[in-house]
Predict the structure.
Amino acid sequence: MIDESPNINSADKILEAATKLFAMDSFAAVSIKQISVASGVNSALISYYFGGKKNLYQEVLYIEAEKFLKLQDKIRQQPGSPLTKLRTYVDGIAEMQQQNPYNIHLIYRELLTPQPMFENYVRSKLYRIHQFMTELVEEAIACGEIVADMPNEKWSVENKANIFMNAYHDS
């Protein structure tokens, strides 16, 4: 049954359903109706709470990106070598992935193939996720903790995504 009245849980239901759907498929492929059905709320509530699918997608991206950015801030404040921080970061990503298996797919889809309407957001927020790992790898190479048998430019987004995915599947 679809919930017709707005309540405190409706927005959360919409966000949860939209996150999973957007992670499984692209922004363009997910419909308001699919989100409504998956969340169990009236489709009008998507506009009520978020102002439409575009704003909902942006909110989903923001929430998922914030999980990564908070982890980065926590790791930046911890003592330890770059390699230790890199391991902590990959472990943190793996743990987040176990709790919410869809979040990394959503983030990396936007990093690899950003929706034109979200390019500024990708540049301002999501690129920080990509850049953090690059910085840790470069620092670890500079202090000799990682042997650089591959040029730095080869540490692409795709390579980092593979590291995250392998960390998830190995744990």
In short: Residues 167-171 have pLDDT under 50 and may be disordered.
